[in-house]
Design goal:
29 strands; disordered N terminus; 471 residues; mainly beta; 37% strand; globular
C-alpha cells in the first residue's frame, strides 16, 4: 500500500493532500534503502542468538560429564579410594582463581578425596599410610606377639603406626631389645634405641618411617638420650659418660653422630643438666632441666640466657613439654610433699600453679588441654595413677572400665579432640595394651595388644607432645 492510499484511509472525508512540487526530495526517513538495513540487522541478531545457544549447550555437557583420561577408568560408585601418596602440598598462588571470580567454563576441579582410615583391627603395609592425615591421635608402637617373659627377649618386635580408631600399618621388624625413643616433629622419622645385653652398651638409630629403613647409627656407650635439640628434629642431646675419672657431659650431636657442641660446662651457675630438653619453636633457644632450676640456653653457642628458679623454693621440677609458646609444663615436688603441675614462663616471669594437691594426695604428673578443661594424670605408687578433669576450678575424677582383656595401671599417652589414647600395663606388666577413651561418654575401645590382637605393646610414642609415653 502506498503512502497516498494509507493517508486516504486515515483521513476519510477529507480532501486529499496536494502532491509535492516537482523536484522535491523525500526526507531521509523515507529513502528506499531502509528495508535492506533492517533486514541485515535482523539476520545478525538471529545469528548471534543461535551461536549463544550452542555455546551454552556445549558448556552444560562438559560440566555434567567430565572426560575420562586415556587408559583409566572411573571409580565404581560407592567405593572408597585410598591414597598411598605422601602429604599433599598446596597449589602455587598463580594457579588459584582470584577471589570473587568464577572458574572458567569446563575447568571445574573435583574436590580432594580424604582417604578412609583403616578400620579397627585391620592391618596394612606401611606403603598404605595416609601421611596427610597423620596427626595428633596417631601413635608409633612396638608390639610383640608373645607375653611369656622367657620368650619375649628372643622374638622380634613389630613397629606399627596406629591410627586413632585402631587400624595399624606395619612399618618394620626390629630386634627384641629395641625401644621407641623419640618421634620426630616431621612425623616421618623416629629414633630407635637398643640395649645390647652382652656388653651393657646402648645404641641409637634413626629410621625412615616411609621406607621402613634404618638411616644411621650412633653408639654412645651407657649414656642417655635427652631429646631433640632443634624443632626440625635433625640434632639430639646426649649424655656422654666420662672416662679416666672425668665427669660426664651433655652434648649436642647430629643424627649421624657428629659432635656439635657441649652444653653447660662445669662450674655453671645452673649446675648439671639431668632431664628433659625442649627446643623453642624458632630454634633459637633450648630449655633444659638443671640442678638449680631450668636453664634457657642459646642454641648457637649454648650460652646461658637465663636461669629460671623452681616455683616453690627447694622443689625439684621435671619438664613435660611446652604448655604455651612462652611457658613449659613441669611437675614439681619437695622431699615429702605432693606433686603439682606448673606453667613456668621461660622469660623469667613467676610460675602459675595448675594443680593444688595437698597431702595425703600424691598429686599429678602430667596434663593435656581438652575442650572445656584440662585432662590430668595422677601420680601413683608405681608410675601413673588415675585420671581427672579440671574444669572451671572443679576437679572431677574419671571412673571408667578398661576394654575386656586389658589389665594394669593406665596412663594418658596422647589426646586428640575429645578422645584420649591410653596405655595400660605399666609397672612390670607383660601385657601392655593401647586403648581409646572417649572423654565425654567414657566408652573405651582396644587399639592394639590384649583386647584386640593379643601379644603385648612394649613401647610407644605420641605425636601430640614429641616425647615417649609410658612405659
Amino acid at each position: 500500500m502506498t503512502s497516498d492510499q494509507d493517508a486516504r484511509q486515515q483521513h476519510v472525508g477529507e480532501a486529499p493532500p496536494l502532491p509535492p512540487p516537482p523536484g522535491t526530495r523525500y526526507p531521509v526517513r523515507h529513502r528506499r534503502r531502509l528495508p535492506w538495513l533492517i533486514a541485515i540487522v535482523v539476520v545478525l541478531v538471529l545469528v548471534a542468538g543461535l551461536t549463544t545457544t550452542l555455546l551454552v549447550r556445549a558448556n552444560r555437557h562438559q560440566t555434567s560429564t567430565p572426560p575420562v583420561s586415556s587408559g583409566s577408568r572411573p571409580a565404581p560408585s560407592g567405593s572408597a579410594s585410598v591414597s598411598t601418596a605422601g602429604p599433599s602440598t598446596s597449589a602455587p598462588a598463580s594457579t588459584a582463581a582470584p577471589s570473587g571470580t568464577a572458574a572458567p567454563s569446563g575447568s571445574v576441579s573435583p574436590a580432594p578425596v580424604t582417604p578412609a582410615l583403616l578400620a579397627r583391627g585391620k592391618e596394612a603395609p606401611g606403603s598404605a599410610i595416609p601421611w596427610s592425615q597423620v596427626n595428633a591421635g596417631w601413635h608409633l608402637a612396638l608390639w610383640t606377639p608373645v607375653t611369656d617373659s622367657a620368650r619375649v627377649k628372643s622374638v622380634p618386635l613389630t613397629l606399627f603406626l596406629v591410627n586413632p580408631i585402631g587400624g595399624r600399618y606395619r612399618i618394620a621388624t626390629l630386634p627384641s631389645d629395641s625401644s621407641v625413643q623419640l618421634w620426630a616433629p616431621d612425623r616421618q622419622h623416629t629414633i630407635i634405641g637398643r640395649h645390647m645385653q652382652s656388653d651393657q652398651s646402648r645404641g641409637l638409630a634413626e629410621w625412615d618411617l616411609r621406607s621402613g629403613r634404618q638411616l644411621s647409627t650412633i653408639d654412645f656407650g651407657n649414656g642417655s638420650l635427652f631429646g631433640y635439640a632443634d624443632p626440625a628434629g635433625r640434632s639430639i642431646v646426649l649424655f656422654v659418660p666420662g672416662t679416666n675419672g672425668q665427669p660426664g657431659r651433655m652434648a649436642r650431636f647430629t643424627l649421624s653422630g657428629r659432635h656439635l657442641q657441649d652444653l653447660l660446662p662445669a662450674g655453671s651457675a645452673v649446675g648439671e643438666i639431668f632431664g628433659e630438653v625442649l627446643p623453642s619453636a624458632d630454634g633459637k633457644l633450648l630449655v633444659v632441666e638443671a640442678q638449680n632450676g631450668l636453664a634457657v640456653l642459646r642454641s648457637t653457642d649454648a650460652a646461658v640466657v637465663r636461669q629460671v628458679v623452681h616455683p616453690a623454693g627447694d622443689q625439684q621440677c621435671h619438664i613435660r613439654g611446652w604448655w604455651t609458646s612462652r611457658s613449659v609444663l613441669a611437675y614439681c615436688t619437695g622431699l615429702n610433699g605432693p606433686i603439682n603441675l606448673y606453667s613456668i614462663p621461660v622469660d623469667g616471669r613467676p610460675a602459675t600453679a595448675i594443680t593444688h594437691a595437698t597431702a595425703p594426695d600424691p598429686g599429678f604428673i602430667d596434663a593435656s588441654p581438652i575442650g572445656g578443661g584440662i585432662l590430668l594424670q595422677r601420680a601413683g605408687l608405681c608410675g601413673p595413677g588415675g585420671q581427672a578433669v579440671l574444669a572451671g576450678g572443679a576437679l572431677r575424677n574419671l571412673s571408667y572400665q578398661s576394654p575386656p582383656g586389658v589389665e594394669g595401671a593406665r596412663s594418658v599417652a596422647g589426646v586428640s579432640g575429645d578422645r584420649a589414647t591410653m596405655y595400660a600395663g605399666v609397672c612390670g606388666s607383660d601385657r601392655g595394651s593401647l586403648f581409646s577413651l572417649n572423654l565425654r561418654t567414657l566408652a573405651t575401645s582396644a587399639l592394639l595388644g590384649p583386647g584386640l590382637n593379643g601379644g603385648s605393646v612394649t613401647g610407644l610414642a605420641s605425636i601430640s607432645d614429641w616425647r615417649p609415653a609410658y612405659p
